[in-house]
Design brief:
Elements (H helix, E strand, L loop, with lengths): L6 E7 L3 E9 L4 E10 L2 E7 L13 E8 L2
Antiparallel strand pairs: 1-4, 2-3, 2-5
Length: about 70
Amino acid sequence: LRSGGSVQLRFELRTSSTVSLDLFDLQGRRIARLADGARSAGPHELTWDGHDDAGRDEDAPVEQRRARRAR
């Protein structure tokens, strides 16, 4: 991700659910939480602006995206 850029992540839910979506660096450290709460059924789009949860630029490559849906 270049400085000043952003990334869009799209997903779809068949039913309303509680969703959390986290981004992790290559060492397995969570760098950003993009979602954590109730979402309605249907398509969704989240944008990551390249900053960690503290608002700092994140230059490390993102290795993993973990999405969880409560049942």
